[in-house]
Amino acid sequence: MAESHEHIACQEFVELVTDYLEGGLSADAAALFEQHLNFCDGCEFYLDQLRATIAAVGRIGEDDVPEPMRDRLLVAFRELRG
Known about the structure:
Elements: H1 10-21, H2 27-39, H3 41-57, H4 67-81
Helix pairs in contact: 1-3
């Protein structure tokens, strides 16, 4: 494989982390993600913390959240995005 001069920044890493953990990144995107991990201790720590949180809390599905709470969360997230 030819050496790539592409890279991702920490902000993009954070945006991609869920897809990475769920196996949703393309092979190229996953390689860039993992390359970033090799050089960024802060993002490596962030990923480790997310993995620990998932292990401790587990996963919940959309149907596990009562509809009124789900609606309030969606409103809050939309307001954060501005």
